[in-house]
Write a structure and sequence with these properties.
This protein is of the alpha+beta class. It is built from four helices and twelve strands.
């Protein structure tokens, strides 16, 4: 009688273990992703591919750099990749998982080398290399509408801030701070200069 009781008690404790073992048909993966300096990296895409069937399992690392992929096919091989922008993609091959096993697969990511290509296209230069100094163009309409009594050249030179009138220099006007002897006045392309200072203006 005592023997039968012991057998029944043994079967009572063994039955849940048998039932639990029959319910587990998969495995799992977990791991941690760190940088080369050992810091945990969140947001890394972990992809596990069951090579024989092509079944893909994915996970993203949490704030502490860990990930977990439950309910994966038992066996393998699996191919793992860890991908994150600005880091080189890391790969693991020939990973196998047993029935009920929580397989650990860790990664260390290295920063991607930054490469830049600069292309310089030729454009028209802003400055004219054959001509230096300040310049100003005055429209014909502006000259025509300018109020003046004598229609003197000095009245029109006042339109440019680079010009100093003859009233201020006690003689001919000058341009850009240079002596009036360097003025070159042209009317319709023909020079009209007073080289000896004999003119009235």
């Amino acid at each position: 009688m005592k023997k039968k009781f012991c057998i029944r008690l043994f079967l009572f404790f063994l039955l849940p273990a048998v039932i639990f073992a029959q319910g587990v048909t998969t495995g799992a993966f977990n791991g941690t992703v760190v940088a080369s300096d050992g810091s945990k990296i969140p947001g890394v895409l972990i992809t596990a591919v069951h090579v024989p069937t092509g079944t893909t399992f994915t996970a993203i690392t949490r704030a502490i750099g860990t990930y977990y992929i439950p309910s994966v096919r038992v066996g393998g091989p699996y191919t793992f990749t860890a991908t994150l922008e600005s880091f080189k993609t890391e790969k693991r091959d020939k990973i196998y998982v047993k029935l009920g096993e929580n397989k650990q697969v860790n990664f260390m990511l290295v920063l991607e080398t930054v490469t830049e290509t600069v292309t310089v296209a030729g454009i028209s230069p802003i400055m004219n290399t054959s001509r230096t100094g300040a310049s100003q163009n005055v429209l014909e309409d502006t000259i025509r509408d300018l109020p003046t009594i004598s229609r003197s050249l000095d009245d029109f030179t006042r339109l440019s801030p680079q010009m100093v009138s003859d009233a201020e220099t006690d003689g001919a006007f000058n341009a850009g701070g240079r002596s009036s002897r360097y003025n070159n006045i042209q009317i319709d392309g023909a020079q009209n200069n007073d080289l000896f200072g004999l003119g009235s203006t």
